From TrEMBL:
Keywords: Acyltransferase, Lipoyl, Transferase, Tricarboxylic acid cycle. Pathway: Amino-acid degradation; L-lysine degradation via saccharopine pathway; glutaryl-CoA from L-lysine: step 6/6. The lineage of its organism: Bacteria, Pseudomonadati, Pseudomonadota, Gammaproteobacteria, Alteromonadales. This is Dihydrolipoyllysine-residue succinyltransferase component of 2-oxoglutarate dehydrogenase complex. Its cofactor is (R)-lipoate. GO terms for biological process: L-lysine catabolic process to acetyl-CoA via saccharopine; tricarboxylic acid cycle. Residues 208-245 form the Peripheral subunit-binding (PSBD) domain. It catalyses: N(6)-[(R)-dihydrolipoyl]-L-lysyl-[protein] + succinyl-CoA = N(6)-[(R)-S(8)-succinyldihydrolipoyl]-L-lysyl-[protein] + CoA. The keyword Acyltransferase applies.
Amino acid sequence: MTIEIKVPVLPESVADATIATWHVKAGDTVTRDQNLVDIETDKVVLEVVAPEDGVLSEIIHGEGDTVLGEQVIGKVEEGGAAKATPETQAPAAASESAAPAASGAVTAIKVPVLPESVADATIATWHVQPGQAVKRDQNLVDIETDKVVLEVVAPADGSISEILAQEGETVLAEAIIANFVAGTAAATSAPAAANVVAEQEDESDSDALSPSVRRLLAEKGVDASKVKGTGKGGRITKEDVEKHLKAPAPVASASSPTPSAAPSVAAGERTEKRVPMTRLRKTIANRLMEAKNTTAMLTTFNEVNMKPIMDLRKQYQESFEKRHGIRLGFMSFYVKAVTEALKRFPEVNASIDGDDICYHNYFDISIAVSTPRGLVTPILRDTDTLGMAGVEKGIKELALKGRDGKLALSDLQGGNFTITNGGVFGSLMSTPIINPPQSAILGMHKIQDRPMAVNGKVEILPMMYLALSYDHRIVDGKESVGFLVTVKEMLEDPTRLLLDV
């Protein structure tokens, strides 16, 4: 059965895309959920994965081609061999003639080229061990810098022969961290050897998992060793994870050992676990200390009635989503209100550089995003030129990149003002810390029904506390309070955002 490989549906604001990298060739065997090709738009890079096990029989559009949404770019023969066409035979023949030279060749695994402002990196996690069979483009090791995590993948089928840099070691750009032997996995043709490889794959934790399965396991907090794989060679599929999550928790029977009989930890035993801080956590800690020690930070508070925005969302949510393809959330209102307030109070949009005050005539807002590795603040740029839909799409894109560990250094550099929303975790009030060299940060909090006095009567209204922390060296009390009141007025009467009043 032939399955068409198509370009994903592109966002409404994206007209076309470009084929960036094919990770497989025509004639290659592919497994379900394996990344086949990266497709690049002007905003994001999209991964297209194999829908089933099979063979990539044809590549219709090569690297560099411009393609449209849902356009067919390749074909996969499900579960079988590629069709013996001249187009597919040529690459296969070429690879066969090259195989003897490539098999057994030793390749150095190096640290990727680091961004200009990053001096070194740390080996975070090795996903494979020496001698373990791996496939081309399988993630071998995570390398952590101050801001992003880089994945180093296998250049071909084979195995790691030697690991030269262990977890926790500091490495420089392009340093050799391991040696890789190509073709060793293919050389083991005996049934017994095949069984050994299958056992290694089945016993492995996440090294044989596709990116989408790894992400799902991380999101749900599931240990891969507890999920029974039904894929090829015992691999875990997304359906296996979902089935594991839906399965009822095992109930202890009368014959089962009781928790008190478990030999794991004696009653009253006190244990500790000591782990080194990640580079990202160290950077966060250093920047927070820098903010506390180098700024004259104060926090001012106010509260806002969220009923007008909630009513507006309820009225237009369905039509907004139909037109723009994304839900209307609260963050777009916060961003637009803050952008308008920054226009009126340029001191809040400024920063101190030595003995100078630098006033910015553009509006780049940092959005605090919680990721599995810590809090980061990617930048939503030129918010004064974005509509509500543009803001929502930009925030969603940054949140997904943060969750998947795909934030680039360029996503994190700059920013004039930060918005952090602790309300999503249930925080009622907080005093956020400034993100230097910015001069202020706005904290949003939990929306909670409270009795409020309205025209001499008590009404139950959805209220939210606002907290503005600011650097008193550059922002005076008058400007800080005026800024916060402007944000409050914009949120309580969203029509002001449209009429510019």
